Amino acid sequence: MGKNSRERHKAKRKAAEAAQRRRAAGKSGPDDPLSLFGVPHVPSQRRIAEQIIDQAVHAQHRDETAELDRCRALLTTGPGGATGIQVVNRALLAFLLREVEHAWRRGWQPAELARVARREYTTRHGRLMVDAIAAQMRSYSTATVDRRWQSQLAALDAQVWWAHDDHYVTAWGERQALDRVGVIAIMVEVLHLLATLPAIEQVGPMPGTAMSAAVVPPDDLDQRMIDRVRALLAKAESTDFPEEADAFTAKAQELMARHRIDHALLVAASGERDQPVTRRVSIDNPYEAPKTLLLQVVAEANSCRAVWMKRFGFTTIVGFPADLESTELLFTSLLVQATRAMTQAKPSIDKYGRNTTRSFRQSFLTAYASRIGERLSAATEGVDREMTASAGAAQLLPVLAARDGAVRDAFERQFPDLTEHATAINNREGWASGRAAADRAALHRRQPVAHE
């Protein structure tokens, strides 16, 4: 064979090898070397699997039952038999990890993703989401993961329990006692959920980014205040006397209000930049609306603004970091107190013999939240008057007004379009009992719950 012939054969082999690599990577185009020799492009198994997954997610979104069934069947059997099943398994896990990361970039956090999967579908969907989160977290060093994310991951028990990613889909099905048809259905549903979640406000840094000052633990002064508040609220939760619980709760609110003012004056005097931040608090069924109302009145008493995102079951709160900490701490305690008082109160049977437990408790919690809102506001206003007199209105009022304005502006930027819905009150006994549990005083005003 002459030199020129050897060179031509060598060039053909290189072109064929390059084309094979392109097909394996799912690439094609008019510059495919094999097209020069009349060889048609054949997609790789991986590319075929990815296309089927894409089609399945789109069919799920458009509610095209026949197309969805067809795609699920193809993913169940795999393109090309046994090897195709393995290719599908790898592609499914890769899709899950990619969509989890995309959801994080749109503002979602680990606990929120797991919760919304359970809320929109089932606990199995939530378990699948936790596994995808655990697998994706392998990409990040622990040192670059925000402490709040680490806390969420620990609470979720997010761990990579499977031996190898190639075996995950099969192992998960065995663990959940599901056949492959059921596994594929759940995976497509979770992929669709992840792909369609809206963008929400970023709360803290994503994994892999530099840690910011916003995630530094509070200083000793803040920690001492928090410890004292926790001690007061623990006493409020443990006592069997409503008046005593109210006194401890009011004292905790006064302490937080004093700290808020002291902190605002300290920041103003030092010239530091202190900006409002965002936090989300999960609100669980039953009785989400009155629980949300309780969180809103606590937030307002602590100079924060809150909005309920009803579909996803959480409330977004905007405020300064110390005020957000106070809000969540007090809300958690009050919810414990309210739940205990509610379960001790016994609803009656109506005149038609029907059980009124649900309407009683809905009305009870709404009344409780309304009255607590007034008590907290009164406690805060009392501290504001006292501190203004001692610090001087000329010094304090502009500082507090500027901070309130900053919170309002930040909140309105995030939520320019809100609607308000009143919580239904249809059980007089529950309403009266809830008011009595909060404070015995008369209160007839109903407060709206804002949600997006």
Automatic annotation (TrEMBL):
* Domain DUF7168 per the UniProt entry, residue ranges: 291-396
Q: Where is this region: Disordered?
A: 1-36
Return the Basic residues bias intervals. 1-13
Q: Which InterPro entries match?
A: DUF2786, DUF7168
Which Pfam families does the entry mention? DUF2786, DUF7168
Q: Where is the DUF2786 domain?
A: 224-263
Report the protein name in the record. Uncharacterized protein DUF2786
